[in-house]
Amino acid sequence: MRLTRIAFLIVVVASAWSGLQPAYAQDIAIPDGVVAKEIDPPVPSAIPGSHDKRVLVMEIFDYACSHCRAFQPMFDKWAMQQADDVDILQLPYLLGSSLDSNLQLLSGRAYIALMIMGRNGYPTQSLLAHRQFFDEILPFYQHMTKSDPPGTYKDMVEFMAAQVAREGMGKDEFKKIFFSHEVDEAVKSIQQAEKSFDVPGIPAIVVNGKYYVAPDPWDTKTPTDEVYNGMLKLTGQLAAREP
């Protein structure tokens, strides 16, 4: 397994949902608390550095999502256990949220900027900052909105840049990348991809542009850890079926 962590996903096809086809459903049970859909037609994608891999697993998350924060350590552990022919890519969810779509866009841009910095010589530092953002971005946003006067989104960017600097990366370099055309284009590509996947909620996993796996929003009985373990088990089964 290799963590791709590159901020480009190019998708040019729309999608529609159907249930898992019988060829897959015959011997793959959907765990309690989990939903799985087939993307029909599949969404072709071009990921730099991924062309030699058998299967691409994409996790879709949001720093301000408490469920994503709980799922992240489990997903990271699962990802490190996968074979070398499985590529892992994480995508920030950029289609708006009930909390604040501007915050979501800002934090998504921050993730993309971190991954670019990781590619440019800070792989460990960018990963550490990425993990810290799950704990730091939402509390700061809540503090900012309750201040008198309330903070601005410029304050949010400065806060994120300060956290990046704390991990040993350049604050000004982060802000330059954050506002760059490269990040603009990555945001557009990710939004196009997520529209094609028709993702109704997060955290979510997409396997090879063919299958979507996520918690069942209508299930209120299955324990959260059981749901997340079920998602990962099902993801592994679907990935194993890929040629």
TrEMBL record:
Stretches assigned to the Thioredoxin domain: 15-165
Keyword vocabulary terms for this entry: Signal
Key word Signal present: yes
Entry-linked InterPro entries: Thiol_disulfide_DsbA (IPR050824), Thioredoxin-like_sf (IPR036249), Thioredoxin_domain (IPR013766)
Gene3D superfamilies on file: Glutaredoxin
Signal peptide: 1-25
Protein name: Thioredoxin domain-containing protein
Organism whose genome encodes this protein: Stakelama marina
